[in-house]
Amino acid sequence: MKTFPESTAPTHPLRIVLCQHSPVVNSRTMEAVLDEADFCLVIQIGSHYMPGSETVVQVRRKGAIVFEQRRPALSLPRSGWKRLLSFPGAFLGYRRFVLSALRQWPEAREAGYIGRAWFPAWTGISARRAGLVKKVVYWSGDYYPIAGSLEMRLINFIFHQIERWVIRNADAIWYLTRRIYD
Question: Which of 57, 93, 152, 159 has its CA 20 to 30 A from that of 76?
Answer without folding.
Answer: 57
